[in-house]
Amino acid sequence: MWPREALAFLHELEANNDAEWFRANRERYERNLLEPVRRMATALGHLGQPHFFRPYNDLRFRAGPPLKENVAVAIGYGGGGGYYFDLSLDGLLVAAGIHSPASDQLERFRAAIDNDRLARRFERAIHAARTADLRPAPPELKRAPKGYPLDHPRIERLRMKELTVFRRHKLGAWLHDRRCLDRIQNELDAARPFVRWLGEHVGPSQQPRR
Questions:
Q1: Nearest to residue 76, comparing CAs of 60, 55, 97, 56?
Q2: What is the mean predicted confidence (pLDDT) over 73-93?
Q3: CB 25 within 8 A of CB 40
Q4: N vs C: which end of the chain shows fewer Cβ within 10 Å?
Q5: Which phi and psi angles does 105 have, rounded to 5°?
Q6: Global confidence as pTM
Q7: What is the mean pLDDT of the chain?
Q8: In a domain, 19, yes or no
Q9: Does 8 map to a domain?
């Protein structure tokens, strides 16, 4: 659960997105944003080990603001899917799966979706996630991927490029009490069959890192 000061900090950060301001206010960031995330990640330890994202953007390859205007954690990621949540002025995002799968992961995903038995298990995992109002990422490809017919019975799944389920909550007073952790835990627990399916049938990329 975040204190009310967390949202005040994010508003100030949006108006003062520079490294010097952040250094002067780093203690506020850690107390009001990062420490609550660490406590929540500890409570979600049954999902795996957490990874806390650095507050600085990588500006080596593209211009932009020096600081991320959110606080985020990924849990249980081993390359084959995991869990994630972040707080920003856009709301609380709760998500699970593989955000940017590599080409070999997409190939394995599509091969599994082409298999009737494995596809039925995938749909059951999606249904479990939907019980917590998590929805799958929409298809991105305009046509069937290479090697699959346009009239494939699961063409909408084959056109997916982001293998996630997610939900974005509007900001509200519930962020500051126990309801916050309860929502995150209920939603990520509902996504466990989905993440398990990805781990079994997609797995981590075998391609060399760039």
A1: 97
A2: 93
A3: no
A4: C
A5: -70, -40
A6: 0.93
A7: 94
A8: yes
A9: yes
First to last CA, the chain: 37
Q: Which residues pair with 136 in a beta bridge?
A: 165
Residue type, 82: G
d(CA 135, CA 42): 25
Q: Per residue in 153-186, pLDDT tens?
A: 999 999 999 999 999 999 999 999 999 999 999 9
- The answer to whether 79 touches 184, Cβ cutoff 8 Å, is no
DSSP 149-175: -TT-TTHHHHT--SEEEEEEEPP-GGG
Per the structure, how many domains does the chain have?
A: 1
Domain of residue 10 covers 4-201
Whether 208 is covered by a domain: the verdict is: no
Cα(69)–Cα(193) distance, rounded to whole angstroms?
31
Nearest to 87 by CA among 185, 6, 188, 190: 6
% helix / strand / coil in the chain, to the nearest 5?
Answer: 45, 15, 40
Q: Could you read off the pLDDT of 133-142 as tens digits, one per residue?
A: 999 999 999 9
- Residue 199 near residue 82 (C-beta atoms within 8 A): no
Q: Please tell me the distance from the alpha carbon of residue 125 to that of residue 198, in angstroms, as a whole number.
A: 10
Alpha helices in 1-115 (DSSP H): 4-15, 19-24, 26-29, 35-43, 103-113
Distance CA 204, CA 83 (A): 15
Find all residues with CB under 8 Å of 177, minimum gap 6, and list them. 1
In a domain, residue 107? The reply is yes
